[in-house]
Amino acid sequence: MKIDESLLRRLWPRGDRRVAGLIAGTAAASESVFVRFGIATPTLAAHVMAQLSHECGAGQEVVENLDYTAARMMQVWPSRFPTLASAAPYAHDPRALANKVYNGRMGNRAGSDDGWSYRGRGAAQTTGREGYARLAALTGLDLVNDPDLLIDPRHFLLCGVADFVACGCLPFAQVDDIVGVTRRLNGGTIGLAERKAWLASWKAALAEASVVIASPQPSPPRIEVPPQSQTQPPPSRWSQIVAVLRTAFRRS
Q1: Which of 2, 78, 80, 66 lies closest to 34, judged by CA?
Q2: Are residues 166 and 138 in contact, defined by beta-carbon separation less than 8 angstroms?
Q3: Which of 10, 41, 48, 235 is deepest in the core (most CB within 10 A)?
Q4: Do residues 247 and 38 touch, judged by C-beta distance below 8 A?
Q5: What is the spatial distance between Cα 6 and Cα 31, in angstroms, rounded to a whole number?
Q6: pLDDT string in tens for the chain (252-residue length)
Q7: Which of these, 156, 130, 207, lies nearest to 53 by C-alpha position?
Q8: 3-state secondary structure the chain
């Protein structure tokens, strides 16, 4: 199972806008990543790619944008910002906002820059020091010390699929349950309608495409049959004796 680069470019037409080479790197890695994590059918591949397409905005939102207005912060984090006055100090200050809303949880240390360092990133928008450490253990990449490896074209799909599997999405994908998949990956059902649309698109695209590259079967070896010899077989000893006797009687 693999994703063809031309198919990915069709579904992610601006996928290289944020990270150069993201589409080519993702397509190139797809076969080995899918084998590694047991993504062996078009349905499973469609569920994986649908969720990742939504999470990363088809390659255009690979790092969480935390540039919010005070009013928007009140909508997203109502318990943290109950008033405009409480939100105003963090308006249009992504780093301060990340540390405010993410520190002290998800493995991020209080009073540190962890909230900013481990904000949502990558194909699955992995968030929090714990999330990065979990993926580091699964992939063998040093994501804690180098978070931007999550958006490296060589590792983008690997990290996204590893997160999908680590979150427990695979059993739900195997029974084609998009609500269950979404809850496991997202923690709720945010963006469910868009995720359903992505799933339909990926199912249709994978049904049309030749995603399994089958090795051509070798032709059976051609056996050359030599033509029958035109030479008569040598006479047997008995026939030679009979011929000699016939000659003798003719002469007598």
Answers
A1: 2
A2: yes
A3: 48
A4: no
A5: 15
A6: 899 999 999 999 999 999 999 999 999 999 999 999 999 999 999 999 999 999 999 999 999 999 999 999 999 999 999 999 999 999 999 999 999 999 999 999 999 999 999 999 999 999 999 999 999 999 999 999 999 999 999 999 999 999 999 999 999 999 999 999 999 999 999 999 999 999 999 999 999 985 443 333 444 444 343 444 444 444 555 455 445 445 444 444
A7: 156
A8: CCCCHHHHHHHCCCCCCCCCCHHHHHHHHHHHHHHHHCCCCHHHHHHHHHHHHHHCCCCCCCECCCCCCHHHHHHHCCCCCCCHHHHHHHCCCHHHHHHHHHCCCCCCCCCCCHHHHCCCECCCCECCHHHHHHHHHHHCCCCCCCHHHHHCCCCHHHHHHHHHHHCCCHHHHHCCCHHHHHHHHHCCCCCHHHHHHHHHHHHHHHHHCCCCCCCCCCCCCCCCCCCCCCCCCCCCHHHHHHHHHHHHHHHC
